[in-house]
Write a structure and sequence with these properties.
single chain; alpha+beta; 2 domains; three-stranded antiparallel beta sheet; two-stranded antiparallel ribbon; 5 helices; 16% strand
Length: 179
C-alpha cells in the first residue's frame, strides 16, 4: 500500500508526450490529472482522498483492462478534439476557448447586420480577416471535427465493451482512425 510519503513529487516523472500524466518511478503507478492541472495539485488531491493504492504483480483482469482502455479512449478523444484542426488551409484552435470564441463570432454576425468582417487569430500569431459566411463555415468544420472525435471514440468504446477476451482487447488500436 502506498502511504502519504509515496505521494512526494520527486517520486513521479512526466509521461513523455502526455500533458497532465505522471508515472511513479518505483511502482509504475500512473497519475492522470485534469487538463492544465499541475503535479502538485494532483498529488494534493490524491493525499486528501485517503485512497489506498496497492500495486499488484497479478496479471490485469479483463474488467480492469476494459476500464483502463475506456479511460484511455476518453483521454485520446479529448486530446484530438482540443488539439486543433485545419480549416480552409489554416490551423484552427479547437480547445474549449477556441470553440467558445468561434461560437461568439457566429452569434456576432447573426445579431449585427452591419458587421462585414472580423479580425481573427486562427492560431497564435496567424491573423486572418473573415466575413460572416466564412466564420459560419469554420463553425461547421470545427463542429464536424469535434463530432468525428466523439463518433470514433464511441466506436472504440463499443468495441471495448463488446470484447470477450484479452485477445479482443489487444486488437483494439486506440491510436488509429482519429480525424
Amino acid at each position: 500500500m502506498l502511504d502519504a510519503k509515496e505521494f512526494a513529487a520527486d517520486r513521479f516523472g512526466p509521461v513523455e508526450g502526455e500533458a497532465s500524466r505522471w508515472r511513479h518511478k518505483e511502482t509504475g503507478m500512473l497519475m492522470v490529472g485534469r487538463q492544465g492541472q499541475s503535479l502538485a495539485e494532483l498529488l494534493d488531491e490524491a493525499k486528501g482522498a485517503a485512497v489506498a493504492l496497492t500495486p499488484s504483480s497479478a496479471p490485469p483482469t479483463k474488467a480492469g483492462r476494459k476500464e483502463a482502455l475506456q479511460a484511455a479512449i476518453a483521454a485520446k478523444r479529448w486530446a484530438v478534439e482540443t488539439g486543433g484542426t485545419v480549416a480552409m488551409g489554416v490551423g484552427v484552435r479547437t480547445d474549449e476557448v477556441g470553440q467558445a470564441k468561434l461560437t461568439g463570432a457566429i452569434a456576432l454576425f447573426d445579431h449585427d447586420p452591419t458587421l462585414t468582417t472580423i479580425d481573427w487569430e486562427a492560431t497564435p500569431g496567424v491573423w486572418v480577416t473573415l466575413d460572416g459566411p466564412t466564420v459560419r463555415g469554420l463553425g461547421v468544420i470545427v463542429g464536424r471535427h469535434i463530432q468525428s472525435c466523439f463518433s470514433h471514440a464511441r466506436q472504440l468504446s463499443e468495441a471495448v465493451t463488446a470484447a470477450d477476451t484479452h485477445a479482443d482487447l489487444d486488437a483494439i488500436d486506440i491510436e488509429a482512425g482519429w480525424p
